[in-house]
Amino acid sequence: MGDPGAEAEHQRARTAPGLAIALLSGFSFGLAGPFAAALLATGWSPLAVVLGRLGGGALLLVVPLAVMAARGRYLRRRHLRPVVVYGVVPLAGAQICYFSAVGHLSVGVALLIEYTAPVLLLAWTWARTAARPRPATLVGAALAIAGLGLVLDVGRGADVDVVGVLWGLGAAVCLAAYFRLSADAGEVDGPPALVLTAGGALVGSAVVVLVGLVGLLPLEANTAPIDLAGWTAPWWVGVVLVAALSTALAYLTGIAAVARLGSRLASFVGLSEVLFAVLGAWWLVSQEPTATQVAGGVLVVAAIALIRWAEPPGD
After folding, report:
1. What is the 3-state secondary structure (H, E, C) of 146-161?
2. From residue 299, how far is each of 210, 229, 302 by CA, in Å?
3. What angle do CA 199, 211, 274 make, to 5 degrees?
4. What is the pTM of this model?
5. How far is CA 172 from CA 15, 76, 82, 111, in A?
6. Which H helix or E strand runs over 18?
7. Burial (Cβ within 10 Å: 0-12, 13-18, ≥19) of residue 184
8. CA dist 220 to 92, 228, 259, Å?
């Protein structure tokens, strides 16, 4: 039997850097919305922003992926399915839905709708298994719905963009796959984080191009300069930032955080993305939230944290 004290010390040694990595991931992910909003404001379509994000991220990861392959670590047959699913759902699916929502709603509102994913999963699990959730979980779900109402400002008769809300809910559905697939990367037989991210970005880029070619969604971009915090920058700056910072770095650190902390704790820390997104949108693209929306956002984040705490780790 191992020494419990040594095991606890080993766990603490993994947790401290894991928390730092998870916060870095939340920061990187949170800025994706503001960078995308800057491009969308110049006439880019959401699909084009997703292609810039995933395609650029894939290009940035080609070199380290080649180095990994040269050292004998490459994509094995058993890794193919999780890589394809990761590319189609958490990458292409979630990004298309989220950036489409950002085209209709503010960054903070779109992200908060996406983060209602645990509530949707709770309802789906309840309907599928007939297992009644714990009381604290039901309270968390009710608080999340109430907070979302405040975020959308429906109490004051605000004009809610239904299309944007539907896109946000689509992003919430896709979000559920992210933590599960990221956790698989930490297993012995799971694909390495770099393979999962780079391979998924390539698959996601192919899906985006296919969607654009068949005409399901417009694929439109231009070279007009963008505005970031009052700074007029070339269009490619926005693409590089969203590809390098909010894709390559964000997903690699996110997977690394889940591997060190576990999906449960990492999902708690991942809520920091909402804070970084709201602050980033306020600073970079002048999307200042109202006091009601701030209160609603706090309520949603607290509710999701309550649900994560109440449900068993395996749920």
Report:
1. HHHHHHHCHHHCCCCC
2. 39, 28, 5
3. 65
4. 0.81
5. 27, 30, 19, 9
6. helix 4-30
7. buried
8. 17, 21, 37
**22-62 pLDDT, tens per residue?**
899 989 999 999 999 999 999 999 999 999 999 998 888 88
Cross-strand partners of 232: 227
Distance of CA 149 to the CA centre of its chain: 22
User: pLDDT for 87-100, tens place per residue?
Assistant: 998 889 999 999 99
Helix axes 250-269, 193-213, angle to 10 degrees: 100
d(CA 32, CA 21): 17
Report d(CA 45, CA 42) in Å as an integer.
9
Please work out, in degrees rounded to the nearest 5, the angle formed at the alpha carbon of residue 117 by the alpha carbons of 114 and 122.
160
Share of the chain above pLDDT 90, in %: 30
Averaged pLDDT for residues 185-198: 69
Angle between helices 32-40 and 94-102 (to 10 degrees): 60
Average pLDDT over residues 240-256: 88
The phi, psi pair for 26, rounded to 5°, reads -60, -40
Model confidence over 147-163: pLDDT tens digits? 888 887 655 545 678 89
Q: What angle do CA 174, 179, 181 make, to 5 degrees?
A: 85
Provide φ and ψ at 156, rounded to 5°: -100, 15
Length of the chain: 315
* Spatial distance between the Cα atoms of 30 and 238, rounded to a whole number of angstroms: 14
- Measured between alpha carbons, how far is residue 271 from residues 86, 117, 131, 234, 235 in Å? 20, 12, 26, 31, 29
Q: How far apart (Å, rounded) are the C-alpha atoms in residues 13 and 32? A: 30
Q: Tokens representing 97?
A: 């839905």
Region label for 133, one of left (φ > 0), alpha (ψ between -120 and 50) or beta (otherwise): beta
Q: What angle do CA 95, 98, 100 make, to 5 degrees?
A: 100
